[in-house]
Design brief:
4-stranded antiparallel sheet, alpha+beta, 2 domains, 9 helices, two-stranded antiparallel ribbon, MetI-like fold, single chain
């Protein structure tokens, strides 16, 4: 008996209609408030041409001006007979040959491409996420194993840590860590932010690791120990590799949440992506454009993470 697959194009069409409807709703909402889109103001917050002034080192005169396309070479001769050669943009030259110059006089400017505030905010978000993610993974793995330990002290301390961190908001933890612990121990705001994010992530990773290890049949560890492996060896070589396959999806979800949680460190004056977006809005007055760009950059970070986690999960499943 041949089974005919159902046509999928009506569902794809319905998806497209829903997306078009959402876009139209957004357009109508902005039209009702008479919002004027100004996307041309946005690129300068990602990359722009910075100008560096070039000035005379001493008193003297302009000996020669050589135009070389977009750049111009200006030769200065000071009172002691020392030459100073400056290369500036041709449209920025402020002097003519034979003019007298004094120390500090502007000769022209040089231009170069520089990263804008949103680009720097994106970089800050990336390194905050990577550093705190690695630290949180290590801390969470240790805390998760301690929660399964036969040692009551390790088990109780790890339980207190997990419940205390999971039971309080991350924003409150950042405030406490920076203004109280950071002040006493003289931590920088960056260190305090990374530490707070790592502690918060580690508590959730600990629960993920604990649940993943407990989901493995107890007979796996007993079989490993019957072959002569110690408890630590059986955990490392037998139980943890199997648990990794099961905890990979929630771990990926936790790290995606971590990327978004980095926006909270702006309260201690760390200029990450969200804070740089707010600062850009105050100067550009392009509220919707900037926030759409910020949201797109968060997606640009998180979508590859989800894709990599899915591929790794499928690869580990094939190894079973």
């Amino acid at each position: 008996m041949i089974k005919h697959s159902k046509a999928q194009w009506p569902w794809h069409g319905l998806t497209a209609l829903v997306l078009i409807g959402l876009a139209a709703s957004l357009y109508l909402a902005t039209s009702r408030i008479a919002y004027e889109w100004q996307w041309s103001r946005v690129p300068q917050y990602f990359v722009y041409q910075a100008e560096s002034p070039q000035r005379a080192d001493g008193y003297g005169s302009v000996q020669a001006i050589e135009v070389q396309g977009e750049h111009t070479r200006v030769l200065l001769l000071d009172e002691d007979g020392n030459e100073q050669s400056l290369q500036v943009a041709s449209d920025s030259v402020t002097l003519q040959q034979g003019d007298d110059v004094a120390e500090g006089d502007l000769v022209g400017v040089t231009r170069h491409w520089a990263a804008g505030p949103i680009a720097w905010g994106l970089w800050t978000t990336l390194w905050l996420s990577v550093v705190s993610g690695i630290a949180g993974l290590v801390l969470g793995l240790l805390a998760g194993l301690c929660r399964l330990s036969a040692n009551p002290t390790l088990r109780h301390l790890s339980t207190v840590y997990v419940e205390l961190v999971r039971g309080t908001p991350l924003l409150v933890q950042i405030f406490i860590f920076y203004f109280f612990i950071g002040t006493v121990l003289n931590f920088s705001r960056e260190f305090a932010g990374v530490a707070a994010l790592a502690l918060f992530t580690g508590a959730y990773v600990a629960e993920i690791v604990r649940s993943g290890v407990q989901s493995i049949a107890r007979g796996q560890g007993e079989a490993a120990r019957s072959l002569g492996l110690s408890s630590a060896q059986s955990m490392r070589h037998v139980v943890l590799p199997q648990a990794l396959k099961r905890v990979l999806p929630p771990l990926a979800g936790q790290f995606i949440s971590l990327v978004k949680d980095t926006s909270l460190v702006s309260v201690i004056a760390i200029t990450e992506l969200t804070k740089s977006g707010r600062e850009a809005i105050t100067t550009s007055f392009s509220t919707f454009e900037i926030w759409f760009c910020v949201a797109g950059l968060y997606l640009l970070i998180n979508l590859p993470l989800s894709h990599i986690a899915s591929r790794l999960e499928r690869r580990l499943a094939q190894s079973d």
